[in-house]
Design brief:
alpha+beta, FAD/NAD(P)-binding domain, 6-stranded mixed beta sheet, 21 strands
């Protein structure tokens, strides 16, 4: 398969996905391309993707974004991880942090040393050996040039899209106001030739990026790509979101609070708090979801509750013919681990690495889709882990999650950790060994044995080893300012 040289790119849809694509392409490849973005003021964006993960820092570095300006303009705060409350069982909490826990050796991860320490009664909680986690609990944070913390952001998604739009337009992207009502296909190749706006205007392009949200105007409605439904593993299909006034200092982590039939998020910004409840409508009606959320929030409402419907899963091809789906049009894994913006970032980065200047070729499409599928499946398994490995049996929803069939790939990881304490990370996988270990331990999965190399230390040496890490973490965190003090000094919003 070949198509004409790629000179004109049309991005259908704005929001975070559209403007990340526009800003990235124009800033890094734009001198040779004509890039336009179509969005309609009539169509609201979802706008609730307010929590991010550390990979976003890499994209911002590529784009030359000034962190202080970005955080201030998006009313942002800093994020060191996610607090999972009531997930393992009622009144049992843990934090999945962005940092590294303890010190590994060449043969075994730190969890093996910690496990023996637990058995001997000389080890603290696993998280006490991670500076990011301890800093999060103490509400401390700072950006340090050397020996700093691994972190991400909480941001206002609408302001972030506006920030990226300004960046993209400075690099030559043309925004076209309008609503797409028709898609023109080439009768021979099946490629998209153009899109037609409600005004009657026809916009032609060589490569189209579909950022039209759940509708998938190009990737699905025009090209009928197909969708793999993962609802049997990830049954959540509804969310209700509201914004509230802040009542206290913003904490440097996202809260994920498990409820009877779902979970609630709490994301603190400088000027407000983002709140939501993710649930399955087989167990909770929309009205019950709204009532549950409103009964568990703090502060005066800024917005009215709005319900969002979705289906967990992935598009069978993210790149089909001359259309690449990004954001919600490519599929949706629920927001539990804040991976949505990351997947947009990975899509646009892969596209730039494989950009088809001289025409679209089938091997590029296959490789792009293979890599995206691989990454998404691993994220999917990581999310399922939170639901399935739980001690909760108090409601029908949690009993279903605990007993449901899970993918073989996840079952293998669980059994490997349970029987041996071992965790593996495959190349290009998003979540590393420390993330899998934190969540499996946090959800109550304790290995049956530790690696024998741990016994090369006698009990006194092991106690000294654990104590030295503990002291190092304490020293590092003690030097950090309060999260809010750092924000006010470094990036206070206007």
């Amino acid at each position: 398969m070949e198509h004409n040289k790629i000179r004109k790119i049309v991005i259908v849809g704005g929001g975070t996905a559209g403007w990340i694509a526009a800003a990235s392409l124009s800033k890094l490849l734009g001198k040779t391309l004509d890039i336009s973005l179509i969005e309609s003021d009539q169509i609201p964006t979802i706008g609730v993707g307010e929590a991010t993960i550390p990979t976003l820092l890499s994209l911002h570095e590529l784009l030359g974004i000034n962190e202080q300006e970005f955080v201030a303009k998006t009313q942002g705060t800093f994020k060191l991880g996610i607090s999972f409350e009531n997930w393992r069982d009622l009144d049992q909490d843990y934090i999945h942090s962005f940092g590294f826990t303890g010190r590994d050796c060449w043969a075994a991860g730190f969890q093996h040393f910690w496990l023996k320490g637990q058995q001997l009664g000389i080890a603290k909680d696993f998280g006490e050996y991670c500076p990011e986690l301890v800093a999060a609990r103490q509400n401390k944070f700072a950006v340090a040039p050397k020996h700093g913390l691994n972190y991400a952001y909480h941001i206002d998604a609408g302001l972030y899209a506006k920030f990226l739009r300004e960046l993209a337009e400075k690099s030559g992207v043309m925004r076209q106001e309008g609503k797409v009502v028709d898609v023109g296909l080439d009768s021979d190749s099946g490629f998209v030739n153009n899109v037609v706006l409600e005004s009657g205007q026809v916009i032609e392009g060589d490569l189209f990026i579909d950022c039209s949200g759940f509708k998938g105007l190009l990737i699905e409605q025009a090209l009928h790509t197909g969708y793999d439904d993962w609802s049997h593993w990830l049954p959540m299909n509804s969310a209700v979101a509201v914004q509230t006034e802040s009542l206290g200092e913003p904490i440097p982590y996202t809260r994920s609070i498990a409820r009877d039939s779902g979970w609630q998020w709490r994301i603190p910004l400088q000027n407000r708090v983002g709140n939501g409840l993710v649930f399955c409508d087989r167990y909770l009606s929309d009205d019950e979801g709204i009532s549950t959320l409103l009964a568990n929030i703090e502060g005066k409402l800024i917005t009215e509750p709005r319900v969002i419907k979705f289906k967990t899963g992935t598009r069978r091809k993210h790149w089909n013919k001359n259309v690449i789906a990004m954001g919600l049009s490519s599929g949706f894994i629920e927001p539990l681990e804040s991976t949505s913006i990351h997947l947009i970032q990975r899509s646009i980065t892969r596209l730039m690495q494989m950009f088809p200047y001289d025409g679209i070729r089938e091997p590029d499409i296959v490789e792009f889709n293979t890599q995206m599928d691989f990454e998404i499946v691993n994220i999917r398994d990581f999310i399922i882990l939170h639901y399935h490995v739980t001690n909760r049996t108090d409601t029908p929803f949690w009993r279903f999650c605990r007993s449901m069939e899970i993918p073989d790939s996840l079952q293998h990881r669980i059994e490997l950790f349970k029987q041996t304490g071992r965790v593996f990370q495959v190349p290009t996988e998003l979540f590393g060994e420390n993330s899998w270990t934190q969540v499996m331990l946090g959800q109550g999965l304790i290995p049956e044995q530790y690696h024998p190399i741990v016994n090369m230390m006698d009990d006194t040496e092991l106690e000294s080893f654990l104590s030295s890490i503990d002291q190092s973490v304490k020293n590092k965190v003690s030097q950090l300012p309060k999260h809010l003090d750092f924000i006010n000094y470094y990036c206070k919003a206007n």
